Amino acid sequence: MNLMLNRVVLSSLLTVILFNCSTHDPRSAIYDLQKEIRISLSTEPPTLDWNLATDNVSYQILNQLMEGLTQFDQNLNPIPAAAKSWEIREEGKTYVFHLDPNYRWSDGKPVTARDFRYSWLRLLKPETAAEYAYFLFDIIGAREFNRGKLKDENRVGIEVIDDLTLRVRLNQPIVFFPAITTFMVTYPLRQDIVEKQRRWTDPENIVTCGPFVLEEWWHEYRLKLGVNPHYGGNPQPSFDRLTIFLVSDPATSLSLYEQNLLDIAGPPPVALPYYKNSPDLMSVPKLRGYYYGFNITKKPFDDPRVRRALAMSLDKREIPNILKGGEQPVDSWIPPGMFGFEEGIGLKFDPEKARELLGQDPRRLQFTLTFNSDPVNKKIAEWAQAQWKKNLGIDVNLDNQEWKSYLSLLKTDPPGLFRLGWGADYPDPDNFMNLFTSTSGNNHTHWKSAEFDSLIAQGSVEKDEQKRKAVYDKAQKMLLEEEAVIIPLFIPMQNVLVKEKLKPFPLIPMDFMYYKRVNLKSEATGPGPLYQ
């Protein structure tokens, strides 16, 4: 066994013991292998309130517990889910969704149009303070309702025609609106459950309408999801339980995978060379961007020359050799593989120009790069720190924070320079560009531009692809070159180890899985070797 992987196994021995000793299921190991899929996530989900969730960890879990009007197929086209069909009227300004009468909540009650209306209005209410409220701002009255300027919710364009018919009226035609209704914040919600139970997301209280139900949430250890007996969608799950262990260290997840205690694992970058010939390894480029953002209200980042200089002094060509996971360095924000991608946009590596922008003595600058705990984030932060020292002579401090604390900091007082990623909620450039509009609850840069907002609004309704592309090109140049609000760094590759019993595995370029589509083979397998 390779020395590095040997240390991985030894470091996770206590976790393995915990996995084996803490299970109280009165079932054999063979039964578990046949009827249960075991995965891991890196941290505790901050919330399972789908109106409030903003992070990928919560999204991964909520996508198993819930379904909205639509879902994505393998080609990322929106297809029916709770809505069996929909009509587009008034040249795209009105959508009428017809709900599937087979969809029921986990307590047996039918999913109704009122459940969607209640959820969407709750998302929009100012007191909810939902960061994703802006997703629905194209609905008539939604923006004004969210800002408290419109008090009458009946004037918002979300209308219940009957139990199985929801009508949505838009300010203007939105070409990608059905894709928005795949996303977690638009899932239906039971008013009686939310208003009756203060802790309505706890396992004993939560009611869901997806393929799985939340059976157990052992905080900081695991979540257990069982099959929803009333699920009305397709396909039906081929297994009895999805167990999600919370494992912060990727090396530990790898060891657990090799010992058949996990069925899926994302190998840490250092281990990828050892798995390049493994039949278990699956890879697909993500529709996801990894970036450093500036809070432009904080010095020295209130000066766009400083922001441009810091962007131009990073040689991103080094990133693939650092992470070794197939990452693609980028200067643009709209990712490769998505309409609107333009390779030539963005600030290029030019340390001489960067030094000119900063003036005679760049060493006068002092700042901290803040990021959340993760081996990849740490590697990239140390690389950026070395780059700024080498190319600009600046000493940069690093601040590494736990995920929940980091999210809280971003919401209350974003650091001057911070790390974030953004994965496609729906596969359209609007999803990436809308992030930095003035009304976006996920825009932690505090940058606001009426011109940029106008461009994004124009791009969302433009049907001519050539004209639409030109709009996004102009908006990207403003965001990345003129104002340098963020520094795009790379597009990650999704590298996943998957057991043969789960093949073919429906991996997609987005940051989530529909586990109901995984066909679990019944044969049990013993511990497997490490791939050399």
Structural class: alpha+beta
Radius of gyration: 24 Å
Tell me the quaternary state. single chain
Helix content: 25-40%
Name the strands of the widest sheet in spatial order: 14-18-13-17-15-16
Please tell me what the overall shape is: globular
Overall number of strands? 19
pLDDT average, as an integer?
91
Question: In what range is the share of β-strand residues?
Answer: 15-25%
Low-confidence stretches: 1-18, 21-33, 524-532
Q: Ends: how far apart?
A: 8 Å
Sheet of most strands: 6 strands, mixed
| Count of runs of 4 or more consecutive helical residues | 17
Q: What's this, in brief?
A:
The protein has 532 residues and is α+β, with helices and mostly antiparallel strands. 30% of the residues lie in helices and 19% in strands. The longest helix is centred in the C-terminal third of the chain and has 18 residues, at 375-392.
Write structural notes for this entry:
The structure is a single chain. The chain is α+β, with helices and mostly antiparallel strands and 532 residues long. The chain is 30% helix and 19% strand. It contains 17 helices and 19 strands. The chain has helices at residues 3-11, 13-22, 29-35, 56-65, 113-124, 142-146, 177-180, 191-196, 250-258, 304-312, 319-323, 351-358, 375-392, 403-412, 429-433, 450-461, 465-482; strands at residues 36-41, 70-72, 78-80, 83-89, 94-99, 158-162, 165-169, 212-218, 222-227, 241-246, 264-265, 281-285, 288-294, 328-329, 367-372, 396-401, 417-423, 486-491, 493-498. It has a 6-stranded mixed sheet with strand order 14-18-13-17-15-16. Strands 1-10-9-8 form a 4-stranded mixed sheet. A 4-stranded antiparallel sheet has the order 4-5-7-6, with helices on one face. The radius of gyration is 24 Å and the shape is globular. The N and C termini lie close together (8 Å).
